[in-house]
Q: What sequence folds into this?
């Protein structure tokens, strides 16, 4: 491989890695909405244990960080009940309707 080819391969790799940083990518928001309503809402409405949480509770960046780092540390056992795929779908739903998204949504 000559230098130019190596550089091009490197740039392609960087492009791939940087797109995958968008953690919510690949989730199914429709399924996520269903899962959120069915599971998360039980604790996340006004007056319930977890207080009101909606997609608009956070920005897109905050949602990504929440799913990557925080992972529901207030009640870690909750996260354990979901598959990685389910969490990705829920993350996608929250991300797409975050307060700084094109379609902010209060109802979950
Ligand atoms: C068994 C009850 C329960 C379930 C189910 C539950 N949570 Fe929670 N959640 C809590 C509690 C309790 C807290 C801590 C609330 C507080 O301290 O005000 C919390 C905190 C949070 C927070 C942090 C709120 C903030 O102000 O930053 C987020 C976000 C969250 N939950 C999202 C979710 C999502 C998404 C789901 C579904 C996958 C979910 N929760 C399911 C009980 C629950």
A:
């Amino acid at each position: 491989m000559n230098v130019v080819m190596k550089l091009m391969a490197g740039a392609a790799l960087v492009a791939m890695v940087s797109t995958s940083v968008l953690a919510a990518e690949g989730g199914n928001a429709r399924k996520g909405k269903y899962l959120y309503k069915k599971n998360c809402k039980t604790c996340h409405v006004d007056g319930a244990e977890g207080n009101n949480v909606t997609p608009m509770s956070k920005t897109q960046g905050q949602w990504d960080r929440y799913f990557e780092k925080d992972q529901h540390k207030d009640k870690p056992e909750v996260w354990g009940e979901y598959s990685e795929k389910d969490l990705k779908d829920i993350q996608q739903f929250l991300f797409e309707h975050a307060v700084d998204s094109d379609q902010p949504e209060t109802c979950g």
The helical segments are 3-20, 29-39, 60-70, 76-79, 84-96.
